[in-house]
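Fig. S4 source data, part A: sequence.
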Amino acid sequence: MKNNDFAMCLSADLFRLKKLKSVIVALILMALLILLTFAVCWIGSNLISRVDVVESADGDLGGVIVDENGNAGISQEEKTAMIAMFDEMNENSLMASGSIASIEFFVMIIVCIFVGKDFSNGTVRLNVSRGANRTHIFFSKWLTAAILVTFYSVFALVMCGILYSFKNSGTFRAHDFGVLMRCFSLELLVNLSIMSVFLMIAFLCRSSGSSLGVSIGLWLVLEIAMSVISTVVEISGGATEWMMFMPLQQMSVAISTAKLTATELCAVIIMPLVYMGASIGIGLGTFLKRDVK
């Protein structure tokens, strides 16, 4: 076994990944999602700024404040509050760059296609038959997917930063930058954890179609189940803190700009590492033991 086996595997995987059209398509779709999110903030802020302020209301029409001529308007306090709300949405969109771009969803699709295609066309079987180390093959694909996640995360952060600057009120301070870096790091960790789960599924299924079906099915089941459970628990007055420890629920903690509690830090740092380690262990373990056909 040569010392550069892993480097050769990684180089080949990165080359094949660059050839996937889905990588570029996902990048374009992420850019559109980010642009749409900020456009909502901009349009909402512009519309509110154009609404007339009613200094002295003579009455109301269906709950809407009207002036002496019957024209609808809002008070100055309400207008200021609504503009501030859209400004806050603009800043929150920057902090949640990894979330609004739906990186985890697009990476799920790409990983399933990438790994499944290598199994289907015999690339993995050929590498194994030539004596390539299976551990090198697995971690080469994991690192390739991790590089993709990191690239998408940086792209989303840079694009959100550029769009945020268009409506920035000039109040972005050093503390805000620290929060931004914290959110970015936690979102990246969560996305790497989720990517590891879908990579495990791809190695278990060993085909693009079946791995995509299982991954999307798991995604939908968890989203629907957590939504239903959350609603039922809240109605019954139960605690919902445990939900932040679930794989797809940790992003809501990662994008939070508030000071995180010890429980939240555990959910967004320790649990992603646990899911990542378990997924890598299961995926690598089965790949080492099963025959490649």
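Fig. S4 source data, part B ends here. The chain is about 75% helix and 5% strand.
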